[in-house]
Write a structure and sequence with these properties.
Strand order of the largest sheet: 1-2-3-4-5-7-6
CATH class of the largest domain: Alpha Beta
Shape: globular
CATH superfamily of the largest domain: Gcn5-related N-acetyltransferase (GNAT)
Structural class: alpha+beta
Number of helices: 4
Largest sheet: 7 strands, mixed
Length: 152
Amino acid sequence: MADFSLRRAVEMDFPAIRQLIHESRLNPTGLNWRRFIIAETGEGVFAGCGQIKPHAGGVLELASIAIAANYRKKGVARLLIDRLLSEEPVRPIYLTCRSELREFYVKFGFFTLELQEVPPYYRRLSRLVNLFTSLSKSRMLVMGLGVPGKVT
């Protein structure tokens, strides 16, 4: 694993955050640089980012986990997620991901939820996304960590 460090984003990071989110084809809504953690190389090169995004009703989402192509498969996402989860003690935390990423998030204690188990925002989002991707093998999953009534 290469040498990476993590830090809180500053306003000057926002163009790089926005660009990486766009390149990664992630949801570009709710991007507020103040919530982001940045991963960078020992030389200060922007390698990735992630945030805990708040939603209505106190719902929290692990979101915008994006790693620059040159730095994927080097442990950067794991570093970001560990840091974000350690800084946010409130549970539950939800996330959305493509079905092929399920096992990656299981390693952090997340588990797949059924639509009836998730807040309304995720039910609407899941129905919409899966309608548009119905011909694809990939489906959008909603996963949770620390959801009441669920054993991890």
